Amino acid sequence: MNILILGSGGREYSIGLAISKEIEEHNLFFMPGNGATDNLGTNINIKYYNDLALWAKENLIDLTIVGPEAPLVDGVVDIFKENGLTVFGPSRAASQLEGSKVYMKNILKKYNIPTAAFIETTNEKDAHDFIDTMTAPIVVKADGLCGGKGVIITQSKEEAKEAASDMLAGTSFGDAGTSIVVEEFLDGYELSIFAICDGENYKVLPAAQDHKRIGDGDTGPNTGGMGAYAPTPLVNDDIYKKVEERVIKPTLEGMKQEGAPFEGVLFIGVMVVNGEPIILEYNVRFGDPECEILMPLLETPVSELFYKGATKQLDKLDIKIKNEFGVAVVMASKNYPYGSSEPAEIIVDEIVDEDILENTHISYAGVEKDGDKLFATGGRVLLCVGFGTSIKEARDRAYALCGQVHFAGKKIRTDIAYQALK
Ligand SMILES: Nc1ncnc2c1ncn2[C@@H]1O[C@H](COP(=O)(O)OP(=O)(O)O)[C@@H](O)[C@H]1O
Ligand SMILES: [Mg+2]
After folding, report:
1. What spacing in Å lies between the alpha carbon of 218 and ligand 1's midpoint?
2. In this structure, are residues 327 and 293 in contact, taking their beta carbons and an 8 Å threshold?
3. Which domains does the chain have, with CATH numbers?
4. Is the pLDDT of residue 422 over 90?
5. Distance 157 CA to ligand 1 centre (A)
6. Is the pLDDT of residue 10 over 90?
7. Geometric angle at alpha carbon 113, from 111 and 117, rounded to 5°
8. Within its chain, how far is the Cα of 228 from the centroid?
9. How far is it, in rounded angstroms, from Cα 151 to Cα 180?
């Protein structure tokens, strides 16, 4: 097939890498891709989605896969479908599950899906009155996309009121915060569960854990994610079953009733509280870094999974997952997540250890090419990914690879998967 992948991160690289390893040969195109995706295929740069759809038609693209949320919320899937193209991802309407936390919370409420008690409002007095009925910690969320920064966990009613007022006044998050959600704090452990959906049917992937904070032991500011592993032993069959019955099925059914059937990747942010899965939020695409371990753990060809997802044939697919564990360690640049860093040349040692060579790989993210040299130019630069028959073995291999990859100022967390190993 001719396959177009939208996005430029490690997530999109990992989708491309998995497809390039399939037995069947495919031609890969990335828009815009990064300094390493052009080793897997061809990078193209077309700014407007209408032009991109025309290009896809002219170039006989059989399948388009959308990585990040922004183009989905902007309606790229609708534009591609109007042009008769096959595309894997949710429509603009269905993407509101991620684009608007108010929409998402109202869907959860309407279809009785377990989530934190909340109100949504555009009104300061309503927010303050609700906060007066709560006990801290209290969570205040901006409605719109904030690049993972629109959630404030406050430790007192006063702090919560201030956060709510600032958001509503548009001072902290602009238009994204003129509508807010105030909700109770959930005390538990967090999981990412991904369901590949075709509007009607779904396939659940192994649960993963991300590591959002920059520092070991979950300290310091939030990031896009510093590492992930899967499958996590923190999930058992009981939790998977509850998530399917109480969350995925009613969501797919509900979205059909809303006239916005959900096709694409449903990313379920779960907090497990006393053994019960409670929904924190939905995203409408893969998590990054979770994608980088889930793609290589799939035995089913990734292109087949996404093609069947895009053409309502998931019921005809028997998904197979490798009996292995994966651990991904993000290598970030010096000033991440505070600011940008000077470009730094990336040097990867020749890897002689067969064990490392066979059971690890690099997934490239914030990199640019200059001649035959690769430079670290983004915040999250690359991921060292390791596999094994245990989490510990996979993690040891990922860290061994980290030791063989160099650039000035490289920064990693040293405790990825600690919750599974403690
Ligand atoms: N009700 C809550 N209770 C406890 N922690 C929460 C709650 N809501 C969000 N969080 C924490 O804040 C993080 C970000 O919130 P989330 O709703 O996922 O928004 P986003 O990813 O858009 O920033 C979550 O990953 C979780 O760690
Ligand atoms: Mg989140």
Report:
1. 14
2. yes
3. 2-92 (3.40.50.20), 117-184 (3.30.1490.20), 189-316 (3.30.470.20), 325-421 (3.90.600.10)
4. no
5. 18
6. yes
7. 110
8. 11
9. 10
Q: Which residue's CA is the nearest one to ligand 1's atom 13? A: 151
Atom of ligand 1 nearest to the CA of 150: 23
Radius of gyration of the chain (CA): 21
The mean pLDDT value for 74-78 works out to 98
- What is the mean pLDDT of the segment spanning 323-329? 98
From the list 196, 146, 417, the residue with the least C-alpha distance to 301 is 196
Q: Kindly state the tokens that stand for 328.
A: 């991904």
Residue 181 pLDDT > 90? yes
* Ligand nearest to the backbone CA of 152: 1
Share of the chain above pLDDT 90, in %: 98
Beta strand 27-32 with 2-7 is parallel
Task: Enumerate residues lining ligand 1, CB below 6 A.
Answer: 116, 139, 148, 150-151, 153, 183, 185-186, 190, 269, 280-281
Q: Ligand 1 mean position to 280 CA, how many Å?
A: 6
Strand partners, 196: 203, 265
Model pLDDT for residues 335-386, shown as the tens digit of each residue: 999 999 999 999 999 999 999 999 999 999 999 999 999 999 999 999 999 9
